[in-house]
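Thread: "does anyone have the structure for this chain?"

Original post by V.I.:
We have the sequence but no experimental structure in hand. Need at least a predicted one for the grant figures.
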Amino acid sequence: MMNLTSRLTSKNIKAVLSTAAILFGATLAAPAFAHAQAPIAPVKFSDACSGVSHVTIGAVGDFLMHDPLQKKAARQKTFANQWRKFHRYTTAADIMYGNLETPTARGITRDQQQVADPGLVWDNEVYTSYQWFNVHPKLVEDIKATGFDVVSTANNHALDRGAIGVTKTVDELERVGLPFTGTRRSGETRDWHTVIEKNGFKTAWLACTFILNSDFLKKGDREGQVLNCNNKQVLNIIKTLAAENDAVIVTPHWGHENHDAPAAYQVKAAKMFLNAGAALILGAHPHTLQPMEKHVTPDGRETFVIYSLANFISFQPAMKNKATVMLFVGLSKDRNGQTFINGVRFIPAFMLNRTGSFMDVEVLPIEDGKPHGQEGLEHILKILPKENMMRYGDAVVTNPECRR
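Reply from O.Q.:
Generated one for you, tokens below.
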């Protein structure tokens, strides 16, 4: 999500973000790709039609709950209506993932004081928007109730309510029973990852972030509650998880906001994570889509990265911030128990906002995003391959070529 970069000079921003180069040895300012040119080659996998068992992973980008979205939820007593047209898909995926880009710290103000909780409102004291987010815990209840199985909590807004905010967010996630990865309570030594088992597949999820808003205020993560992607421990965790699970999914918070192409350090980090044993990388932070690609590791595994899934829910105004996708990745196992990717597909979507009414905010199928849906689709297809696209209403099939 947006951090404080709008108030800092480019020199200061680079000074903060350059910590990533310590581990990944990359210049952060230069993008790794030019803007994608159509037609973009499809992402396909050699073993798409083999396998004796299967699991489908669904993924969306940021739950970025600006104040109009919180006001609508307060009026309707639910957040879930804001992605209601996608409930059919969030419940269809075997494992559904999203990036929870806010604390949900009940009764905690901007200055991290405990007060009486005001309930499901946007009061701009306890429950607030940009630049320091905090959203009523009804959000995590609704995320769970609409079919999500796991969320990332390691992002630049993780410490927007300080250490107590991280702890209280963990409390709410555990109360609801929504698995999460990337943060832990003050004083805890719990594992950073979580494991989701479905259809006989054991998947390990690991979130980390290169960026924290508190870093810009020189506070940092004093109690070690948020996993830093720049920590060499991350590679060791991935290696361990790969040996114990069928697939490791890493969800890094990285890159530059509003850039359609990944920075060089994202590309280098992705290869290191995948080569260490990860099967998938689902990136976040830029608030716009970034490319997806297959990466073949030195040991011959076909792995996958999408550098940014963009926003899922937000009030950001630019077309690149409104155009988004719901991604599906299929995993299969062969008769020897080896897990591999069978295919990747996405549904194009559009975030309706800024119509003049805070009640008129909702993520829609691209076909319903009039009058701007076509512009949104054109933006999406400048970045992602059309051949991997599916239409809203289609059944979720990650390897349609196998049905021909």
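V.I.: this helps a lot. Residues 5 and 13 are 6 Å apart (CA to CA).
O.Q.: and The two ends are 41 Å apart (CA to CA).
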